[in-house]
Amino acid sequence: MSHVPVLEIGGTHVTAAVVDTEARPPVPFSAVRQPVPADAPAGELLDAIAAVAHHIDVPEAARWGVAIPGPFDYATGVGRFRGIGKFESLHGVDVGAELLGRLPGAPSGISFVNDADAFAIGEYRAGAAAGRGRAVCVTLGTGVGSSFLDGGHPVVEGPDVPPDGRAHRLTVDGLPLEEVVSRRAIRLFYARTAAVPDTGRLPDLPDVHDIAGSARAGDAHALRTVRHCFGALGRALAPWCERFRPDLMVVGGSMTGSWDLVGPAIRAGFDSWAPGTAPTTVTAMRPADAPLIGAAHWALHRSATPPVPT
């Protein structure tokens, strides 16, 4: 069956779609995106997630692909969300069993996949990484998502990839990576650098796209922020790309809207590690639907177990 129903579960929203995996390129259709209450009790949250799925035309007895952020036990479908500010009510909950009883079309099963892996697989199947032997795919948003692909398969173990194949587990300048490059970290660094009045409220600080706009306008503090934060990302990734030797690095996420600034800063970070080590780096070709495409292919191949180490 080439038509696969999928869910992409984000921190504040859920997208449901049916993906035609035989199309060239495979494109989701009838996609529906709705907000969900990430801090709601488990039953209410699961009801809200499943409700989005009821807005699409679902094949009967299909196997669903579900892209969801970690921490999550993808083999068993059990949530491991604790201390991360979202989906806390799903910690220890058998999300797979709960969704099977709520999703339409009497589903035959669910294959869960990490959202960064789903994005990477989607870009491999129908985007910028198509036909590449090895690729590193990174998403920049609230945090840093990543996937190291070998032949379209996520690599999660071995000496050539970070712990669990996740860049957010890396440190840079003695700090966890996401304390240097993430939406929150970038805004705080700019506030300290530019001596922005401290109101104690993050929403009062300029957002990343505002900082990028100030950098283009010649604000030295904003330019320093971009170079420091995204340069740190390049420095953190450089030794792992040197080991993994990707043919390409694909970058997605909301911050690629400022790629004219972000891209050069990342490359400069690589060069500070060793000149000329940066892989060819491009922005995602299918930033919106790559996770949906990836989740569909994951389910189609019945990958209900974690990625196989290579």
Structural write-up:
- The chain is an alpha/beta fold and about 300 residues long.
- The protein folds into two domains: about 5-115 and about 290-300, Nucleotidyltransferase, domain 5 (2-Layer Sandwich); about 130-285, Nucleotidyltransferase, domain 5, CATH 3.30.420.40.
- Helix content is about 35%, strand content about 20%.
- It has helices at about 40-55, 95-100, 115-125, 185-195, 210-215, 220-245, 260-275, 290-300; strands spanning about 5-10, 15-20, 30-35, 65-70, 70-75, 80, 110-115, 135-140, 145-150, 155, 170, 175, 250, 280-285.
- It has a five-stranded mixed beta sheet. A five-stranded mixed beta sheet has the order 10-9-8-13-14, with helices on both faces. It has a two-stranded antiparallel sheet with strand order 5-6.
- β9 and β10 (about 155) form a beta hairpin.
- α5 (about 210-215) crosses α6 (about 220-245).
- The chain starts with a strand and ends in a 10-residue tail after the last helix.
For the record, the CATH architecture of the largest domain stands as 2-Layer Sandwich
Structural class: alpha/beta
Task: Encode the helix/strand succession as letters.
Answer: EEEHEEEHEHEEEEEHHHEHEH
* Physical arrangement of strands within the biggest beta sheet: 3-2-1-4-7
CATH fold call of the largest domain: Nucleotidyltransferase, domain 5
Residue ranges: pLDDT <50 for 5 or more in a row? 303-310
- CATH 4th-level superfamily of the largest domain: ATPase, nucleotide binding domain
Question: Roughly how much helix do the residues carry, as a percent range?
Answer: 25-40%
Report how far the terminal alpha carbons are from each other.
28 Å
- Mean pLDDT across all residues, rounded? 91
Number of extended strands: 14
**What is the CATH class designation of the largest domain?**
Alpha Beta
Proportion of residues in β-strands: 15-25%
Largest sheet: 5 strands, mixed
Please tell me what the overall shape is. Answer: globular
Backbone CA Rg = 19 Å
Q: Give the count of structural domains.
A: 2
The tally of helices reads 8
